[in-house]
Amino acid sequence: MGGAGLLAACTGRSASTAIRSAPPRTAPTTTLVDPNTPWWLRGDFAPVTREVEATDLRVAGSLPRELNGLYVRNGSNPKPGWSPHWFLGDGMVHGVVIADGKAAWYGNRYVRTTLLAAGGGLTAKGAPGGAAGLSNVSVVHHAGKLLTLGEVGLPYELRAQDLSTVGAYDFAGGLHGNMTAHPKIDPATGAMHFFGYNFTEPFLEYYVADRDGVLVSSQPVSVKASTMIHDFAITDRDVVFWEMPVLFDMNLAIKMISEPRSTIMPYVWKPEYGSRIGVMPLGGPASAIRWVEIEPCYVFHGMNAWRDGDEVVLDVCRMAKVFEAGSALGAPPRLHRWRVNTRGAQLTFRDEVRSDLDADLPSIDRRYAGRAYRHGWRVETRPATDDVVLAGAVHVDSHTGAETRWDAGPQYSSGEWLFVPTGAAEAEGVVMTYVYDRAAGTSSLVVLDARDVGAGPLARVELPQRVPYGFHATWVPTL
Asked: DSSP characters for 281-336?
């Protein structure tokens, strides 16, 4: 049965039971890259070479019958076997269909971009942009369309039934620049708010697509240079940008593309540029944005934002710096709470450290996006010398700051824990991600009770091949 039939077959309800057993060890399905290669091309970062499908996957434990849909996650999987950085491989999605308490289907597919058609990776055939993007960072499901997203270029539309590529998607010609990997869907209106940062002016553009997917607004936001802005936030009335001192370097970009075996990232850490937070009305106008300067730092990912009277409150994974020589990415990420007071002519700012755990890739119950919330999840990071090591799940109570961890042990590593609801209340549901067993060289989809991650897995779905470390996921519910 294909993916479409599997999705249509999702029905039923039942309780779940917890298990703590590891998946059986089987032989790896791929050959890992030599350890002398860069960290993003070895171990569980190493690309897989096959696109496979499997049905009736073995499940250890019990999947909640309320889970009916497709889990799909994007990531960097360089087709040529080489990329200049973890962030710069070809996009590949891995999906699992869950239906009626069963794991009915697994499939992985390259995103068929024009770069992939030209051999994969970044090439010297012109500057990336438009359809020529890697589309390797994230996935969003909005207005009935499943889109893969990168930092540079247009999104690509996929068919949810088998993850095959439809083609580049430009919102009926309305999207001319890049699109962020982190759009926000307003739970009240269904509108999708997003932005794109560009290499030339306008360096930053803000967009709104209505609940039907029609692009209804496109506005430039005034900034001084091309900086890497990976994420942003919304509240029920605000858009919040953070602009930080990671600047695009054209000379490095040219060198990276012209030298096939380079290990160059075309962004540089320049703390003298400064960091600032901008607040503007939801939907615009962008000309009304107001900024407040903060200490130089970097934030790849925000957890959530909301209004508290005159204050915009943001929970973010803050890093002291990134992209300095000798480090994999940057300083360890810590959970901070920022408060921006919008009363009066000048914004004011307060910073509070909320956790001493190193953790990133935050998730929330997205029905609370832009609203006061209680529950959030991150993936814990382990100390590393020249690479990135991701561990288990961390649940945080945003009211009290209390944290609960699930650490599967040193031989396992995980990724972003995506929340999927099974009931109406906040955090009534599960979190899930792909977990890698480095001793066996195998991967599984692990499902935890969202409110009790410390109890261990409700279920592990054994996968037919290793799933490399990736970035961000979404859930496509059965309609």
From this structure: ETT--GGG-EEEEE-S-EEEEEEEEEEETTEEEEEEEEES-BS-TTSSSBSPPEEE
